[in-house]
């Protein structure tokens, strides 16, 4: 247990950040699963990708995920959508 007030405050802040980050990560995973299943089903319309990109970009802006990670997710989703579109 922290004995110093600033350490106690930092612990409280870290706990709040952890809750926020977990919620964001969960939201991201859910959205990625929905998008991947839609792509596999052949429903890779731009609205599905746009929604996923929006979630990814928001989390990258809030530093829940890194910018390069966000770009990698978007690139892989786009490539998968293009592959299914050409089949």
Structural class: mainly alpha
- Mean pLDDT equals 93
Q: Helical segment tally?
A: 3
Q: Architecture, CATH level 2?
A: Up-down Bundle
Strand percent estimate: under 5%
CATH class categorisation: Mainly Alpha
Shape: elongated
> Could you spell the SSE succession in H and E letters?
HHH
Number of domains: 1
Helix coverage percent: over 70%
Low-confidence stretches: none
Rg calculated over all Cα atoms: 17 Å
Identify the CATH homologous superfamily.
Ribosomal protein S20
Largest sheet data: none
Intertermini distance: 59 Å
How many E-type strands? 0
Topology of this protein?
Blueprint: H1 5-40, H2 46-61, H3 67-86
Features:
single chain; Methane Monooxygenase Hydroxylase, Chain G, domain 1; elongated; mainly alpha; 0% strand; 87 residues
């Amino acid at each position: 247990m922290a004995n110093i007030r600033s350490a106690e405050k930092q612990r409280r802040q870290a706990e709040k950040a952890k809750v926020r980050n977990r919620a964001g990560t969960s939201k991201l995973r859910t959205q990625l699963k929905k998008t991947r299943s839609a792509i596999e089903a052949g429903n890779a319309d731009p609205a599905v990708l746009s929604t996923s990109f929006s979630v990814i970009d928001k989390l990258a802006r809030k530093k829940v995920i890194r910018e390069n990670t966000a770009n990698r997710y978007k690139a892989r989703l786009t490539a998968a959508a293009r592959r299914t579109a050409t089949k």
